[in-house]
Design goal:
With 122 residues, the chain is α+β, with helices and mostly antiparallel strands. The protein has one domain. Helices cover 63% and strands 13% of the residues. It contains 5 helices and 3 strands, in the order ββαααβαα. It is globular, with a radius of gyration of 13 Å.
């Protein structure tokens, strides 16, 4: 995951490039929080309503999960996707994460760290 253009602090939106693995992991994470398992206090934990999370999922559904993708996303949506990914790792753990997302757990954890860094730059 990397910023493609401009300063992330300069605007509300940031252009990022995702590898195929990153695309797959983030899309799966949002899908999991929407339809895979129940989250108590969804808005507090994820940072948005369930309807908004489904809208994010619809946007991520447009990604090609077999190649790198470029996406323009606002800072709030990026935080919400990060929160969804955090909850997916926590809920699925080592037993199910790879099976349900198609991504190796270590790659998912690394992506979570990269997302934290990207958010700190915004």
């Amino acid at each position: 995951m990397r910023i493609l253009s401009g300063s992330a602090k300069a605007a509300n939106e940031v252009n990022i490039e995702l590898t195929a693995v990153e695309s797959r992991a983030l899309r799966a994470a949002v899908g999991e929080v929407c339809f895979g398992f129940r989250i108590e206090n969804f808005q507090r934990v994820i940072g948005c309503t369930e309807d908004h999370a489904r809208e994010l999922l619809n946007r991520l559904d447009g990604l090609d999960l077999d190649q790198p993708n470029k996406i323009t996303i606002n800072k709030e949506d990026l935080r919400e996707i990060k929160n969804a990914h955090t909850e997916t790792i926590r809920e699925l753990g080592t037993e199910e994460y790879s099976t349900r997302t198609g991504v190796v757990l270590e790659d998912g954890r690394s992506l979570l760290e990269q997302t934290d860094v990207l958010i700190s730059l915004t």
